Amino acid sequence: MFSDLNVFKTAYAMATHAGQRQAVISRNMANADTPGYKPRDIEAFQTTFENTGQEVAMTATRAGHLHRDTHQQAWAVYTATETGDPNGNGVSLEEEMLKAVEVKRQHDRALAIYKSSIGVLRTSLGRA
User: Fold this and answer.
1) Residue 83 φ then ψ, to 5°
2) In whole numbers, what is the pLDDT of the chain averaged over residues?
3) How far apart are CA 30 and CA 103, in angstroms?
4) For the ranges 22-26, 36-40, 53-57, 120-124, which has the lowest average pLDDT?
5) 3-state secondary structure string, the chain?
6) pLDDT for 103
7) How far apart are CA 51 and CA 45, in angstroms?
């Protein structure tokens, strides 16, 4: 009955996604003054979650590996094309801060889901 609880897997995936996206945002902020640096971001968790039911082929990491499939992995990092600085740097610290707040909310939401699910599980087992 309790062997495969998808709510825990989803909460774990959401928290992992938030951590990975926060790392990308931090890298963008660290390179805010690097000439020619283009900001990167990760696909939204909701989009990734909606696409998990689709069949995904394995990804080739080098030529001749597997069958040369070049599908992007879930949570693939993509590069933004906007450049707003004369030196070609496209990082906007304001936008990166807003993204960081969004990621923190996502992480907090994942922890809340996990804590709530643990509470429901404990209550169902008779342990409050």
Assistant:
1) -125, 120
2) 80
3) 17
4) 53-57
5) CCCCCHHHHHHHHHHHHHHHHHHHHHHHHHCCCCCCCCCEEECCHHHHHHCCCCCCCCCCCCCCCCCCCCCCCCCCEEECCCCCCCCCCCCCHHHHHHHHHHHHHHHHHHHHHHHHHHHHHHHHCCCC
6) 95
7) 10
Tokens of 115: 């804590």
Mean pLDDT of 99-106: 95
Count of domains in the chain?
Answer: 1
Cα 119 to Cα 112, 113, 128: the distances in Å are 11, 10, 8
Residue 14 — very low, low, confident or very high, per pLDDT cuts 50/70/90?
Answer: very high
**Look-up: residue for tokens 């938030």?**
18
Residue 109 placed within a domain? yes
Q: Which residues constitute the domain of residue 68?
A: 6-124
For residue 75, being part of any structural domain is answered with yes
Phi, psi of 38 (to 5 degrees): -110, 130
| Structure confidence by residue, pLDDT tens digits, 50-92 | 766 655 566 666 676 655 444 444 556 666 655 566 777 888 8
Residue 1 lies in a domain: no
